[in-house]
TrEMBL record:
InterPro entries the record matches: HotDog_dom_sf (IPR029069), Mitochondrial_HTD2 (IPR052741)
Lineage of source species: Bacteria, Bacillati, Actinomycetota, Actinomycetes, Streptosporangiales
Species the sequence originates in: Actinomadura chibensis
Signal peptide positions on this chain: none
Protein's name in the database: Acyl dehydratase
Source superkingdom: Bacteria
SUPFAM superfamilies: Thioesterase/thiol ester dehydrase-isomerase (SSF54637)
Single GO molecular function: (3R)-hydroxyacyl-[acyl-carrier-protein] dehydratase activity
Gene3D superfamilies: Hotdog Thioesterase
Length: 135
């Protein structure tokens, strides 16, 4: 990918399944039942189990690293959830390069990122910074 300001990140499409959300809750020690128990999520007023906030952050990190290419190292990722995402609803994670600076032995690349549901709802927005070593 071209890592110049304005360059678009290749989007990542991901549809969270019930099993994936259960497993993500397990590995992140998130025991809130709305993330893996459909009956409980519905009792709380949700139509299905809820995608974890931290899953958006993980997908933002993946989007930035994928865009930056081999050898890139994540330095920072930040995000804010804007709307609730649910199991079975396709999500697209995308972004743009906002800044590139030379650090002497590589480049620091900054991204603006968004996670969008299939209906166009922006579920999360964020930023990330990766270091790309000199080739």
């Amino acid at each position: 990918m071209e890592t110049e300001p304005g360059a678009a990140c290749p989007p990542i499409e991901y549809t969270p399944t019930h099993l994936a959300l259960f497993r993500f809750s397990a590995v992140t020690w998130n025991s809130h039942r709305i993330h893996y128990d459909q009956a409980h999520a519905r009792a709380e007023g949700f139509p299905d189990v809820v995608v974890q906030s931290t899953l958006h952050g993980e997908m933002f990190a993946r989007t930035a690293l994928n865009a930056a290419g081999p050898g890139a190292v994540l330095r920072r990722v930040e995000w804010r959830n804007r709307a609730t995402a649910f199991a079975g609803v396709p999500l697209t994670f995308s972004g743009r390069v906002t800044a590139v600076t030379d650090d002497g032995d590589g480049r620091l690349v900054e991204f603006d990122l968004a996670g969008t549901a299939a209906d166009g709802t922006v579920c999360a927005t964020g930023t990330a910074e990766v270091r790309v070593p000199s080739r």
